[in-house]
Amino acid sequence: MNRTFIIVILIAISISADATYNKNKKANKLYEKGKHAEALSLYEEALVEDPDEKKLSINKGSAQYRLNDFTGAEESYKNAITVKDTKARADLLYNMGNVYNTQGDQMAQTGNQQAMEKYKAARDSYIKALDLRPHDRDAKWNLQLTQMKIKELEKQQQQQQDNKDKNKQDQDKQNQDQKQDKKDQKQQDKQDKQKKDQEEEEKKNQQQQPEDQQQEQKPQPKPQKSEEDMEKEEAMRLLQQYADDDKELNKPQKKMRALMGKKPEKDW
């Protein structure tokens, strides 16, 4: 970018303005030699003598710009914004565009969102300068470069906004998933608790059944026969064995004999 700054050369109109004119002329020579601090000092001295001279404010702003005092340069240019001379006003607007452009570059490097405002202010200043001086090639060139910076910055800001929106959507989805997971877990815990309570209730009911009902479920032991009962059964069996021979059973002797059993064998 061509950042050429224009120094306004004051023309002495009267003898009373000679001192101011000479200081401005001397300061301009120092400025052209790159001695911007010395030039600034003389411009300020001249402004003390003639504070209403707008062209001196323009020159002071140019020296401040060269010394990287962009805030001071902007203030000096604004103090001269009502300058009547068309050429001086075109120079002022061109220089202001350069100040805004440089401020925008600094802000863009640090991610300051106000960079866009500075670039747009620079663009407006170049356009106003071209309205007064349409064939100013430097102003046209700087205007094109500034417009490219604005488009690039708009692209970056749009991309940042898209990323921000996407991150928000992802975060919202993540939060929604977490809420659903908590809801599902809560439902699962509820089902598990219901199942556990049901199992405990069934277990409790089984433990509280009446003893007689529990006994019915258990196999009952068969009663053991006594010796007396066994002898009666044996007697009945013997009676049934001879039940067919009624005659024999009716005879007293045989009946007695059957009940007594055999006699012992004789001794040898």
SSE layout:
Blueprint: H1 18-32, H2 36-49, H3 54-66, H4 70-79, H5 86-109, H6 115-132, H7 137-207, H8 211-217, H9 227-241, H10 246-250, H11 252-260
Structure commentary:
This protein has a domain at 15-160: Serine Threonine Protein Phosphatase 5, Tetratricopeptide repeat (Alpha Horseshoe). 75% of the residues lie in helices and 0% in strands. The protein has eleven helices and no strands. Helix 3 runs antiparallel to helix 4 (70-79), helix 4 packs antiparallel against helix 5 and helix 5 runs antiparallel to helix 6 (115-132). The model is unreliable at 251-268 (pLDDT under 50).
CATH superfamily of one domain: Tetratricopeptide repeat domain
What is the helix fraction of residues, given as a range?
Answer: over 70%
Low-confidence stretches: 251-268
CATH fold-level assignment of one domain = Serine Threonine Protein Phosphatase 5, Tetratricopeptide repeat
Q: Figure out the total of helices.
A: 11
Return the CATH architecture of one domain: Alpha Horseshoe
Termini, distance in Å?
159 Å
Estimated share of beta-strand residues: under 5%
What descriptive keywords fit this protein?
268 residues; mainly alpha; Serine Threonine Protein Phosphatase 5, Tetratricopeptide repeat; 11 helices; rod-shaped; disordered C terminus
